[in-house]
Amino acid sequence: MAINIKTPEQIEGIRKSSHLAAETLKYMEQFIKPGVKTIELDRNCEEFVRSHGATPATKGYRGFKHSCCISVNDVICHGVPNETVLEFGDIVNIDVTTILNGYFGDTCKMYYVGEPSEYAKKLVEVTKECLKIGMQQCFPGNQLNNIGFHIAEHAHKHGYSVVYEFCGHGVGIKFHEEPDVSHIADKNTGPKLKPGMIFTIEPMINAGKARCKIDRKDGWTARTIDGKLSAQFEHTILITETGCEALTDVYGDF
Ligand code: MF3
Ligand code: CO
Ligand code: CO
Q1: 154-203 confidence digits (pLDDT tens)
Q2: Which of 24, 35, 93, 153 sits 20 to 30 Å CA-CA off 186?
Q3: Within a domain: residue 176?
């Protein structure tokens, strides 16, 4: 199976959907406060996405029932919105994927609830840097796994570990397409990047050990094995003739 090369028409559709996903994350900022339940945030998210003529891709996806994933503190990803109440000092990830006119855009970022510790903020900042470093490897002719190689190098330099049980992925026509994008990988391996490829980079970086465990009750929420913090940022990336365009980068904040 080959990696899809998107047509100009598909690219335009995916760009529009990606912009809406980015606008959704921006819209959510106002609701991030101590005392708010993650299930309430999910409702705000769903309302915004639908009011812009789109559908949240996670709703009904393999039995997932919500419009976004909300991952607090030691939750790595796929946090199921529920009665969890945000507390001052928490770090929170919201991951939203929109379907607009049949096209998918996928992005996530971290939010601070009040003022987290320096320890927590450092993890978040380094994770943001990891995404940027991965994006610097996105140009035609470069090999895919150089993304993960450089991400892991940066994370390890700061004493953090890289989650290897979840990857980035091709995206646009479907939610998850080829290729898998590892965030820890061997240098100069993997397929060569070509203009028209679209995939996500979404590093999950842990303060402690890399391993995760899945919540036995909800079957989705992935937590760090040692209870330490985890952070994640995600962009949908288009390979262009000269480099890349982060289709979900509307505000330049990550
Ligand atoms: N948006 C996530 C990603 O970046 C996938 C969430 S799938 C779900 O790939 F089912 F957990 F919602
Ligand atoms: Co994704
Ligand atoms: Co996502």
Answers
A1: 999 999 999 999 999 999 999 999 999 999 999 999 999 999 999 999 99
A2: 93
A3: yes
pTM tops 0.90: yes
State the DSSP string of 37-58: BHHHHHHHHHHHHHHTT-EETT
The values of phi and psi at residue 160, to 5°, are -95, 165
Q: Would residue 153 count as lying in a domain?
A: yes
Does 95 contact ligand 1 (Cβ within 6 A)?
A: yes
What confidence tens digit (pLDDT) does each residue in 112-143 have?
999 999 999 999 999 999 999 999 999 999 99
- Say whether pLDDT at 229 is over 80: yes
- Alpha-carbon gap, residue 98 to 104, rounded angstroms: 6
Distance in angstroms (rounded) separating the CA atoms of residues 34 and 236:
30
Please name the residue whose Cα sits nearest to atom 8 of ligand 1: 58
Ligand 1 atom nearest to 202, measured from its CA: 4
Residue 213 is part of a domain; what is its CATH number?
Answer: 3.90.230.10
Number of domains in the chain: 1
Q: How far apart (Å, rounded) are the C-alpha atoms in residues 9 and 106? A: 18
